[in-house]
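One such shown below:
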Amino acid sequence: MADQINVDAPNTMSNQTSGAGAAGGGYTFDADKIDAVIKKWQDLQIQLQADAQDANLMANVKAPGREFASGDWQGMANPSGKAFLEQNLKMQEYVNNYIQQLTDAKKKITTADQHAQEGIATTGRAGS
């Protein structure tokens, strides 16, 4: 099994640059820690989904009354809520893409380990 895994930051629809890791950055971690890394990103995904519910409420706030002050309040609150919701959705996309990349990396590790084990079973040596 590889000692370390390098996973580039995922590209998103809002980042039209091409190439692996073109979104910038990425992470390197020990291969035996991949499950813990995936779990942390999944926990973040759950938090973002909860935040999206709050953002949706803010984006669709109704004026508390019918007078002009309430209408002004609604007019100022909704754009902020919509901006928060939009940013949250972009972050959710980023996190979803990253979880997919981590899951793909885990599959590659698992496949490489299986091939190594098969080689040992067949020939008595690793890497054959």
About this structure: The CA atoms of residues 50 and 73 lie 24 Å apart. Confidence is low (pLDDT under 50) at residues 15-22. The two ends are 15 Å apart (CA to CA).
